[in-house]
């Protein structure tokens, strides 16, 4: 029986591509990453590079990728803060936002014209992204705003971030604290929730049947795609390098050892 997933791989008009572990790892471009981008451009396929990273702007990410030999434009990078702001534009276009976050979150909020406030009494929306200089006062103000009815949005809920000597707290640690204090659950935008993928689809007027999610994680990339019926394509180049076959089948993604293997299939 013909596997329809392979036909969807060949015909997908929008590729959503995870960044860390899929295109880059350890500050270096992974083998085949540059060729994949060139192949998609030649085939005139739309693509977006997706990342849960909430601290950096697409401009900064694209600049760093260019230094690694990857020809990526700023508007081809899509971060979880960008997706959050796109959701806000649809759901709460006149929101007064109390934001916890760095430039990666603050810049798109400002660009879309949202009113940023510091007084919790003026906030009807709280947006939380990772802030590595976070202070207690900011947490207290966000908690009070939530307790008094503000809506709660989070870029992502990664609990911890790997560093050389172990782990640092991720944005999920901040979100959990505020959820515990306020009793209010955040609307999470980044992977593994599907909202980021849905926002990316909306940018191109595409449906899940028209697109695929290429990533290295069975915990974030593939579940997000699976939840909305999008094809997931897993490469064993990042966090899922040692995953068991049974775990892979549970989400029914297509599986390739690495990007050169994927490219070899596309070239057949």
From TrEMBL:
<dbReference type="InterPro" id="IPR023214">
    <property type="entry name" value="HAD_sf"/>
</dbReference>
<protein>
    <submittedName>
        <fullName>Putative NagD-like phosphatase</fullName>
    </submittedName>
</protein>
<dbReference type="InterPro" id="IPR036412">
    <property type="entry name" value="HAD-like_sf"/>
</dbReference>
<dbReference type="Pfam" id="PF13242">
    <property type="entry name" value="Hydrolase_like"/>
</dbReference>
<dbReference type="InterPro" id="IPR006357">
    <property type="entry name" value="HAD-SF_hydro_IIA"/>
</dbReference>
<dbReference type="Pfam" id="PF13344">
    <property type="entry name" value="Hydrolase_6"/>
</dbReference>
<dbReference type="GO" id="GO:0005737">
    <property type="term" value="C:cytoplasm"/>
</dbReference>
<dbReference type="GO" id="GO:0016791">
    <property type="term" value="F:phosphatase activity"/>
</dbReference>
